[in-house]
Amino acid sequence: MKLRKILKRIEPFLYISPALLILFLVLVYPLGYSFYLSFQDWTIRTFKKGINFVGLQNFIDLVKNPEFLHSLVVTFKFMACAITLEFILGMVLALLMNEDVKGRSLFRALILLPMMCTNVVVGLTWRLLYNHQFGILNYFLVSWGFEAVPWLSKPGMAFASLVITDVWNTTSFVALLLLAGLQSLPVEPYQAAKIDGASSWQAFRYLTLPLLKPTILVALLWRMIDTFRIFDVPYLLTAGGPGRATETVSIYIYRYGFQNFNLSFASAASFLMMIMMLIMAGGLTKIFGSEK
Questions:
Q1: Residue 257 DSSP label
Q2: Residue 266 CA to chain centroid, in angstroms?
Q3: pLDDT digits (tens, 9 = 90+) for 82-93
Q4: Average pLDDT, stretch 274-287?
Q5: What is the mean pLDDT of the chain?
Q6: Cα(193)–Cα(171) distance, rounded to whole angstroms?
Q7: Do the beta carbons of residue 174 and residue 90 sit within 8 Å?
Q8: CB neighbours (10 Å) of residue 22?
Q9: Backbone angles phi, psi at 52, to 5 degrees
Q10: Dmax over Cα atoms in the chain, in whole Å?
Q11: Could you identify which of 93, 133, 220, 282 might form a hypothetical disulfide with 175, taking C-beta atoms 3.0 to 4.6 angstroms apart as the criterion?
Q12: 66-270 CATH choice from 3.40.630.30, 3.30.360.10, 1.10.3720.10, 3.30.70.120
């Protein structure tokens, strides 16, 4: 009887054990080994001599590295520009789709098109569009009498092009999140505000935005984490250039880890990046999750 009771208790764990094993192999073990490497000295030139423990030296060298600090600045600038534009455009689209207008269902389906493309396809497609000689954007500009724009060959334009691509790719998802939040709001406060003579702007400012705070938090958290760790689209568009003008933290880690084979330094940068994301997520949650 005791054996049967024990088997009955552990039976649920037996069912999920394959999933836990796979999760451990693909997530927990790589993270643990990367954390271990961040305190070691592992490079392609020295690994045959053994892995030496260096403590926090990798982290100290990292915060003193001007290239890493530059990649942080680029990443934060990209986050600020992309998230601001995506939130504003997403809110406008969500408010439009929330109205009872003709063709609303078709419009909702059309804005989903960018989400159906993988990031690799998005990066390669926009690189063709931005091509200085054969890109369709410059083709139309020249045909209208303007000069061809060096979209990816000048630092400022390359950064702006990266922001435009990301805004095109993910604004629709932000709009859908906000639309879901708008459609879940109660109608009674709006009816009372209308009776009291509140304008549309007043209803939006004092009712919609406060009631939509949980949904806004989810949208901003998702976009903040996604833009901070973005790699594929910037790498396919510019590979961090020109002159490292678009080198995000992820591209910096890739360059040290898989091009220079300094895995210890790259691991330290990865965990520092993770700590920053956790701090920013905690701050954002505190701001939007607080009740006044």
A1: I
A2: 20
A3: 999 999 999 999
A4: 88
A5: 86
A6: 30
A7: yes
A8: 10
A9: -95, 135
A10: 88
A11: 93
A12: 1.10.3720.10
Distance, C-alpha 93 to centroid of its chain: 20
Res. 168: pLDDT tops 90? yes
Rounded to whole angstroms, the Cα distance separating 259 from 32 reads 22
- Amino acid found at 151: W
Tokens 């504003």 label which residue? 88
Tokens found for residue 161: 């092009």
The contacts of residue 33 (CB under 8 Å, 6+ apart) are: none
Question: Would the pLDDT of 43 be above 80?
Answer: no
pLDDT value at residue 129:
92
The domain segmentation of the chain, as residue ranges, is 66-270
Q: Is this prediction's pTM over 0.70?
A: yes
Confidence class for position 161, pLDDT limits 50, 70, 90? very high
- The two three-digit tokens of residue 83, written as one number: 């998230």
DSSP state, 77?
Answer: H
How many Å apart are CA 93 and CA 219, to the nearest integer? 14
DSSP state for residue 185 in the 8-state scheme? S
Are 163 and 81 in contact, with CB atoms under 8 Å apart? Answer: yes
Contact 158, 151 (CB under 8 A): yes
